[in-house]
Amino acid sequence: MASSHASSSPPPRPNEAFRQLRGSRSPGEFAAAVRRAAREIGEQVSCDARYVGRVESGEIRCPNYAYERVFRHMFPGREPVDMGFAPRNVVRGKRARETAEARPPEPGGTVRDRAPGAPGTPFDSHKESDVLRRAFMTSGTAAMAAVSLGAVPGPRSPRRAGETEAAAVEQAVRRIRLLDDRHGADGLYRRAARPLRVAYELLDADTRRQSVADRLHTGAGELAISVGWLAHDSGRFADARSHYAEALATARVAGDPALEAHAFCNTSFLARDAGRPREAVRAAQAAQRAGRRLASPRLMSLLALREAGGWAGLGDREACEEALARARTLFGRGAAAADPEWMSFFGEAELEGLEAQCWSALGDWARAAEHARRAVDLQNPHFARNIALFTTQLASDLAHGGEPDAAAAAGDRALDLLTEIHSTRIRTMLAATARRLRHHPREAEGFLARYGHAVASGG
Fold first, then answer.
1. Dist CA 394 CA 450 (whole Å)
2. What is the CATH classification number for the domain harbouring 374?
3. Most confidently predicted of 97-101, 190-194, 443-447
4. Strand ranges (E), 97-249
5. Most buried in the list 46, 327, 362, 365, measured by CB within 10 Å?
6. 435 within some domain
7. What separation in angstroms does the CA of 221 have from each of 102, 123, 198?
8. What total number of domains does the chain contain?
């Protein structure tokens, strides 16, 4: 006899949003596409037509973590709720939360954001996730939040924030940037959420000096941008947009033009990657209005490059070339004392790489490859993620430009680098290049075999 609980459960509601994502493909064809997408990012899912039917009928209200990662990869910029799924905490309810709380905690006190037995990210060595997690949790932002920032103040026990708390927030920002430069964003984003929350709660703490309050506002805003970048680079565009907006609001409240310029700079970058080039132009121009209040030609150079990227996305070659020329002129004026700390990555290599991306968007593959090659050659070894990025950019430009041999060689170098770098954005670029090179199986045979093995094995 069925229990009264089971008999009273409401019937599932069909998932119309997910059905629309399937489009004209049959459930079997869509399931095959899901399995292909999973292989591209190193996941293993047993998707078939029955699973697709269960999702569309509403029987599966929330996918497991592996499927969620695959669906995010297939539909960039969409959150699970945009695909018709219910929030995980609503589906799991109290019992699931209690189960999660009973699991052994991660170092630093967090619960692992991964389904039991789910494979790691593609191109990982099998030990990478634990190594990187320990590095982040023991010397990074989460441990710093737990030790230096302390417990979240309760409503009846307002706490004071001083130099120690401000310094901890600032160090959290530096640690995130350092780990991202060396390893990429994947694996860091979720673990940066708690220190960001604590940093913003400190803005409500009692501070005796205005200088401390100013540092806390700037630090919280910069931390929001750093966490937003981790979301951006790992393909979570909606999360990134939210974090950048939070940083912009903080900048406006604090009257901080440097923070405002940084927030608009990253918003422009995100808009370009999300396929909103006009927004990219406008955000870059807003960043330049804020940046003019600072004495930093290098900052203005980077912002001009962001504007150029937007113009390239719109196909406006003349406006793009004007912005690129302005960026080079400003860059040539050299470094200044007012250059923001976060711009440590912006040297000649980055200038070349961003220009390469503009020519790529305009379809000038030879010029794009020329600049991408310079970006790789000039890059400081510290910025390992950017070396991987521009090597992958070079492979893409060469493939589009009809040089499959050279593209495959660059792709091989990118694979070497991606054993240590974990960035959804870079992996997606390399996957697109591999698809293009499949039209040249003889010239790219070695790379394609190695790429397929890397995706299949996660090695």
1. 18
2. 1.25.40
3. 443-447
4. none
5. 327
6. yes
7. 34, 32, 12
8. 3
